[in-house]
Design a protein that fits this description.
about 170 residues; mainly alpha; Flavocytochrome C3, Chain A, domain 2; 2 domains; 3 helices
Length: about 170
């Protein structure tokens, strides 16, 4: 009885071993083809330039923040509001969030800042919590500071209400 089971086990393993050998051959052949000469793959240049990653590189200055504290119209529904003031020096770590010292509900009256949205108190199941949910704690993951930066590319975005759609 044991011999028949062992024989069936060997027969069942044979296709797996064959597939592994063939897969290894394909990987080996592809590696040999790429190392044989010039690589046919076009490598995309790095966004940081050609500098060595361990080398000190001059960082260009940041664009100037717009600090007029004017609330701007949003460009599309559900767009997170931009930050209309400077956030230089704001501490945003696991233990401290400077934004909440003005935008948390209990501080908005004294600071005059808009209260953060109720969605920031909801967990992923839609349950409203008493404090900001951890997934919404790091404000700058969604909200950006308004600056005087020039666009990197031409922008033809337009509001659908302003377009004559046929």
């Amino acid at each position: 009885m044991r011999r028949k089971a062992a024989s069936r086990l060997r027969t069942a393993r044979a296709p797996l071993v064959l597939a592994a050998v063939l897969g290894g051959f394909v990987v080996f052949a592809a590696a040999a083809a790429f190392s044989a000469g010039e690589s046919p793959i076009n490598v995309v240049p790095r966004l940081t330039g050609a500098a060595d990653p361990m080398e000190d590189v001059h960082t260009p200055p940041f664009d100037r923040p717009i600090v007029d504290d004017v609330r701007r119209m949003r460009n599309y529904p559900e767009q997170p509001p931009i930050i209309p003031h400077s956030i230089d020096g704001y501490q945003l770590t696991l233990g401290t969030n400077r934004c909440l010292s003005c935008h948390k509900r209990e501080f908005t009256e004294g600071s005059g800042a808009p209260m953060i949205s109720i969605t920031h108190f909801m967990d992923r199941d839609g349950q409203v919590l008493s404090d900001v949910t951890p997934r919404r704690y790091f404000c700058t993951a969604c909200h950006v500071q308004q600056t005087d930066a020039k666009p990197l590319v031409r922008n033809l975005f337009g509001d659908t209400q302003n377009n004559d759609v046929q």
